[in-house]
Every structure is written in structure tokens, then in C-alpha cells.
Design goal:
The complex is a heterodimer.
Chain A (H helix, E strand, L loop, with lengths): L1 E12 L2 E12 L3 E5 L6 H8 L7 E6 L6 H5 L1 E4 L11 H11 L5 H10 L13 H13 L5 E5 L7 H16 L3 E5 L3 H7 L2 E6 L2 E7 H7 L1 E6 L8 H4 L4 E7 L2 E6 L3 H9 L5 E6 L2 H10 L9
Parallel strand pairs in A: 3-7, 3-8, 5-6, 6-7
Antiparallel strand pairs in A: 1-2, 1-4, 8-9, 10-12, 10-13, 11-12
Helix pairs in contact in A: 4-5
Chain B lengths: L13 H15 L11 H8 L3 H13 L3 E4 L3 E4 L6 H24 L4 H15 L13
Antiparallel strand pairs in B: 1-2
Helix pairs in contact in B: 1-3, 1-4, 2-3
The chains are: A alpha/beta, B mainly alpha.
Chain lengths: 298, 139
């Protein structure tokens, strides 16, 4: 079942299109990592999903229904900028959370406070940015939420607490929770997510299972005796993202079918053909640097 | 401490790395026949990787008949010691490592005969005295 469902979401601010016909479904028990350059529309999409801003068009649902006050009972959202009350202490925030959420688990909350080494008597304004993020995360996970939407959840955290956040995400999803999170750190997505979505200029440019993408996306490189030929047939092959030629070297960045494409390059009698794996970082950079499939992009 | 080492940054899918690591552990005996594997969730948290990814590796290992899972009890290395499946699984890992190596040597522009000679030299080095059935022809 798709717990998080975004269908054909568009958000316009006057002339500017922040989110452009975005469709994204996240299954129950899955962790979807949303990547994209600054201003790609990640936070706007999250806010539309949660009903915090009104979409221009689109259908949004969580657990099969549009977001409503009852949806919020079982949903944890950690925004990019925390919404904690500066003048309140950490402990008072947990108390507020206990009164607001029927699902609040006091034992879990204490575990989380200890995990992030929170000083419960301190006021929020006296905490560092990272500690404030930790408070917001501890509150979010203390309701054992079936759905989590986390906007840059590890920003400002040191590497040890970043790992703690990943463990919390992995643990929640292993228990059946559905997680949608954005990050600038590809390494976090690589570990926690089984699903990756890449946004650019409000458009979804790549979406799929992480391991399947890594298995499919390759560079096929051919080295020729003379200058690389123009591989006429291949240029229009939909499995190829782009072809780069530099003297005797030809590189095809492929979406899938690397073995067959290597075989077609063999037919041109090169000196050698090699297939290279791509890391998620390579795949990400390739996806956001590609020319958009439809016009309208700057 | 986990007995498996995964590199999430690699371009090799994580579930494939894990499948290879389990097969290798069975081959080396660091996982014994009949031994219980960690639960999907425990291994996911141990390696800090997604649980569905670990589950996919376990499904693959079941399909390759390296492990067996019984509902409610957990996953175990198949109990027949030296069973055909486990040996074949290990050969699969070896075959893919060799295929990559051969592909790379070929892409360097080396001739088949040269690659064969290099391969035999490597065999001499690593199977020194243990493998009498492979006798290098040339030196």
C-alpha cells in the first residue's frame, strides 16, 4: 500500500513554478530519500503534502486520505527550520508533546533524550543549532509515528548524531513506518533509503529503488585507435542519458542495458570496452546536470 | 561487531554486496552450517542500511539455497555441510570476480594468450603446492 501519495502536484508562486507536476508514492515500510539542489522544491513539496501550504493543483494523500487533523495524530514532521519555542525548556516541549499526541510514549521519549544527550532543563534558546535539531527529532520519534516526513533531519548534527538519526529512521521503517526525508548528504540517503527521488527545478528527474538504480546506471567506455566515431544508432537510444566524446575515448552514460550497449560498441571495433559502476553521487550529479527532457528549463 | 563489511558509497548495489559477503562467510566457515543469521532488522541496524535492502539480500540467498528461513524462527545457513548449493554459490562469487578481472585485462588490450599466462602465474603464486591438478605449461 502507498502510505504517502503525491499525484501531479504543482505549486506556483505567481510566474514561478516551485513544484512542477510531481508524482511520488512511498510504500508502507519504505524509506524514500529526496535529493535535489537548493531551490529544487523539496521543502515546498513537503509543505503541500502536509497541508501547510495550498497546492496549485494535485492530489495528496497520507494512508489513503487527504491530510486532516486526525492524520496529524500519526504523523511526525520535522521541518527544515525548527518550530520549537525559544523560551521553553526541553522538558516542557516533551510535556507539550505528551498533551498533544495520544501516541506519545514517555519511556521512548526518555530513551531518545538520553540517546541525543539532551539537557532537559535547558531553554531552547540556550541550545546550539544541532541540539535544537536533536530536540525536534526526539519529539518526532517519541510518538512512534507510522508516517515520518523529515526535511533535512540531520542538518547541524555532528557525525555521531547523524548516524543516530539514520538508525532511528531505519528502525522505524523496519517496524513498518513510512519515511520521506530530504537530505543534501548523499551518504545518508545511501544508507537509510531503499528508494531515491531526485528533484530539479520542481520536476522529478529520477525516481526508483536505490539498488536497482545502482545496478542499472553505468558508464560504458570505449577506446578507439583513431578518434571516436559518432555512434549514430546509439545517440537516440532511450537507455542512454548522454554520450561524451573526447578524442579516442567515448563514454555513454546509460540508464540501463549496459551489457547490450557495450556489445553494440564492440561492433565498432574499439581497442577496448569497459563498464563502470556509478555511485549514488555520480547518478545524482548526472541526473541534475542532464538537459531536461522537455523544454522550459533554464 | 558484524562479520559483514558493506560499502554503501560503492556503485555495487548494497544487497549484492551483502549476498556476496554472506556467501564468503559460509565459504570461509565464519558462518557455520545451521547457524542462525541476525534478523533483518538487527542486521540493518548493525550495518546502518535500509531493512528492505537487507531483506532483499536474504531473499536472494534463499533463492540461491544458501540460507533457509522459517517463519517465526528466523534465517539459518542451510544445514547440509558442503552441500552442492553452497559450493555453487561460492563458485558464483568466484566466477564473477574472475569475469571482472578478465574483462579488465582485456580492456587493457592484452591478448588472450598473455592473459592466460598471467592467470597461470597468479595461480602459481596463490595455489603454490596446494593444487597439483593445475600444472603451468610455460614459465
Amino acid at each position: 500500500m502507498n502510505t504517502i501519495s503525491i499525484r501531479n502536484l504543482t505549486k506556483r508562486y505567481g510566474e514561478q513554478v516551485a513544484v512542477d507536476a510531481l508524482s511520488l508514492e512511498v510504500e508502507s515500510g519504505s524509506v524514500c530519500g529526496l535529493l535535489g539542489p537548493n531551490g529544487a522544491g523539496k521543502s515546498t513539496a513537503f509543505k503541500c503534502l502536509l497541508g501547510l501550504i495550498r497546492p496549485t493543483t494535485g492530489e495528496l494523500a497520507i494512508s489513503g486520505a487527504p491530510v486532516s487533523p486526525s492524520t496529524f495524530e500519526s504523523l511526525a514532521y520535522v521541518p527544515e527550520k525548527n518550530t520549537l519555542y525559544e523560551w521553553m525548556t526541553v522538558k516542557e516541549h516533551f510535556e507539550l508533546c505528551r498533551r498533544t499526541y495520544a501516541r506519545f510514549d514517555a519511556a521512548r521519549a526518555s530513551e531518545l533524550a538520553a540517546l541525543f544527550k539532551l539537557d532537559s532543563g535547558k531553554k531552547i534558546k540556550r541550545l546550539s543549532k544541532g541540539q535544537q535539531t536533536a530536540v525536534a527529532l526526539a519529539l518526532a520519534f517519541s510518538i512512534r509515528p507510522p508516517v515520518l516526513v523529515l526535511d533535512e533531519p540531520a542538518s547541524g548534527l555532528d557525525p555521531i548524531f547523524q548516524r543516530t538519526v539514520l538508525d532511528l529512521i531505519i528502525d522505524a521503517a523496519a517496524g513498518g513506518a513510512t519515511v520521506l526525508f530530504s537530505s543534501h548528504q548523499i551518504g545518508q540517503v545511501e544508507r537509510a533509503a531503499d528508494r531515491v527521488a531526485i528533484l530539479k527545478n520542481g520536476k522529478l528527474v529520477l525516481d526508483g529503488n536505490l539498488d536497482t538504480l545502482k545496478g542499472d546506471e553505468k558508464i560504458v567506455e570505449a577506446v578507439f585507435d583513431l578518434d571516436a566515431l559518432s555512434p549514430n544508432g546509439l545517440a537516440s537510444d532511450p537507455r542512454i542519458r548522454r554520450i561524451v566524446r573526447n578524442g579516442r575515448i567515448l563514454r555513454a552514460y546509460v540508464r540501463s542495458g549496459s551489457e547490450e550497449i557495450a556489445a553494440s560498441l564492440e561492433a565498432l571495433h574499439p581497442k577496448s570496452v569497459s563498464v563502470y559502476d556509478l555511485s549514488l553521487e555520480d547518478i545524482f550529479l548526472g541526473a541534475v546536470s542532464d538537459a531536461a527532457p522537455t523544454s522550459g528549463d533554464a | 561487531m558484524t562479520i559483514f563489511l558493506i560499502n554503501p558509497r560503492s556503485g555495487v548495489p548494497i544487497y549484492i554486496q551483502l549476498v556476496d559477503q554472506v556467501k564468503r562467510a559460509v565459504a570461509l566457515g565464519t558462518l557455520s552450517p545451521g547457524e542462525q543469521l541476525p534478523t533483518v532488522k538487527a542486521l540493518a541496524l548493525d550495518l546502518t542500511v535500509n531493512a528492505n535492502t537487507v531483506a532483499r539480500a536474504y531473499r536472494e540467498l534463499e533463492r540461491d539455497r544458501v540460507i533457509e528461513t522459517s517463519p517465526g524462527r528466523g534465517s539459518f545457513v542451510r544445514s547440509e555441510p558442503g552441500s552442492g548449493e553452497v559450493r555453487r554459490a561460492i563458485e558464483d562469487v568466484g566466477a564473477s570476480v574472475l569475469a571482472d578481472a578478465v574483462r579488465e585485462t582485456r580492456s587493457l588490450g592484452l591478448e588472450r594468450a598473455t592473459v592466460t599466462a598471467l592467470f597461470e602465474r597468479a595461480l602459481d603464486r596463490w595455489f603454490n603446492g596446494t593444487s597439483s591438478e593445475i600444472s603451468p605449461e610455460e614459465k
